[in-house]
Design a protein that fits this description.
Blueprint lengths: L22 H4 L4 E5 L1 E2 L2 E2 L1 H17 L3 E7 L3 H12 L4 E6 L8 H15 L3 E5 L2 H14 L3 E5 L1 E4 L6 E7 L4 E6 L6 E5 L16 E4 L32 E5 L9 H11 L2 E4 L1 H5 L20 E5 L5 H4 L7 E6 L6 H4 L2 E4 L2 H12 L14 E3 L1
Helix pairs in contact: 4-5, 6-10
The chain binds flavin-adenine dinucleotide.
Length: about 375
């Protein structure tokens, strides 16, 4: 996220825009977040979105609303309190047995009804499997615009519209999309793109329990059983605090073991570029970037990674980026906080030993290696 995140933006071409909303739509007010929950609880992207919603609402001089939906349970009450602590002013609780477990039809119906009733001007969802599924149904039902997979949200000063930025043309460009003539303005944002706001238990908010008119017989889809994906290489890169990632510069699949050792020593996870995944060196679940995961660890070590834009969009929000590359002009050094020009295959074992506290003072850095920050 850039420093400009959340600040009003002025863009070229504004003079040609139609900025007078249909009076019917001009009354829409408030920034809403759909709070996504599954069997394990609320998805953290919902809290990240509430942080962004708070900033946008403050600029617009309006309120933050959160929609909490599910089967009636104490968990919904706890989620409502958490939503207030993360920045919401109003909670719209949709509690109904039909909402036990996500299904597109009842959830889309509830969200559309609430939007028609309360008229929020902005509606944000996580760009998760559930969020993408729900957002597209809601947007088409309400006949409004949806900007998917955003990387930045701001307010357009002139039109008061949501300026939703997302990668386009294969990730080589970023475009900012404004929905000027329809309401609500909808956007999905990937997990970990936005920072998690501080949780403030002293905040207060209004909780509205909504009357929900749903009937199981009217829902075509039946949820028989929920089976979490059990096979394969289960990794949660999005939440990892340390990631040691490798690219084609590691040269062989075997050299990925060097990353694994360093990741283990640091208590982190291994990540990879698409080139390394396509070479068959590592499972696709570990791919970071535009067509992989978006990550925001405290430490990101990029070894033998050139730093193509499609990779950078997935990792450039990391707190500390350390890059190792033989090419001093590699683009990865443009986003790295600390750069080492050198052979990653020789340097990775040294770093692992250093982390384990075994590096002796006399250890020689391989010829040609230099460090900068
Ligand atoms: C639509 C689209 C989507 C994409 N999505 C993604 C995505 O999600 N994620 C992604 O990563 N890519 C993605 N890509 C691919 C991306 O454009 C790059 O091709 C890819 O990231 C390059 O991977 P790399 O850095 O491993 O390989 P390379 O670009 O080949 O870079 C290898 C680097 O290693 C360095 N090197 C070589 N030997 C050593 C050594 N011994 N020690 C240290 N450094 C060394 C080289 O100097 C070079 O900089 C996408 C592309 C497109 C078109």
């Amino acid at each position: 996220m850039s420093e400009a995140e959340g600040k009003p933006v002025e863009k070229k071409g504004a003079a040609r825009r139609k900025v007078t909303l249909d009076p019917r739509l001009a009354e829409y007010r408030g920034v809403w977040v759909f709070v996504e929950r599954d069997a394990e609880g609320v998805h953290p992207v919902s809290w990240e979105l509430l942080g962004a919603a708070r900033r946008l609402a403050d600029q617009l001089g309006t309120v933050v609303g959160a929609v909490v939906a599910g089967a009636p349970s104490e968990a919904l009450d706890a989620d409502s309190q958490d939503a207030i602590a993360y920045g919401a002013d109003q909670i719209f609780v949709a509690a109904h047995p039909v909402l036990a477990g996500y299904r597109n039809e009842p959830y889309a119906r509830v969200l559309c009804e609430l939007v028609k009733k309360y008229k929020p001007e902005i509606l944000l969802l996580g760009a998760t499997s559930l969020g993408r599924d729900l957002a597209s149904s809601v947007a088409t039902t309400l006949e409004t615009g949806l900007t998917a997979d955003c990387t930045e949200l701001a307010i357009d000063r002139e039109s008061r519209a949501l300026a939703a930025t997302r990668p386009t043309f294969g990730g080589n460009l970023l475009c900012t999309i404004l929905t000027l003539n329809y309401r609500p303005q909808m956007a999905t944002v990937r997990p970990r793109v936005l920072p998690l706001p501080a949780k403030d238990r002293r905040r207060s908010g209004e909780i509205r329990k909504e009357e929900i008119d749903l009937c199981e017989e009217e829902i075509v889809t039946k949820l028989v059983e929920f089976l979490p994906h059990a096979g394969g290489d289960q990794v949660d890169l999005a939440l990892a605090e340390v990631i040691v990632a490798g690219g084609k510069g590691l040269q062989t699949a075997g050299n990925f073991a060097l990353l694994e050792e360093l990741a283990r020593a640091l208590g982190g996870e291994v990540g990879a570029t698409r080139a390394a995944v396509q070479a068959g060196w590592v499972d696709h679940q570990r791919q970071i970037g535009q067509t992989g995961k978006t990550v925001r660890p405290k430490l990101y070590i990029a070894a033998g990674i050139s730093g193509a834009i499609q990779h950078r969009v997935g990792m450039e929000s990391s707190n500390l980026i350390v890059a190792i590359n033989t090419d001093p002009n590699a683009p990865i050094f443009e986003v790295a906080h600390c750069g080492i020009v050198g052979d990653a295959i020789a340097l990775l074992p040294l770093l692992t030993r250093a982390v384990r506290g075994q590096l002796v003072v006399e250890t020689t850095i391989p010829t040609g290696a230099s460090a900068s920050s």
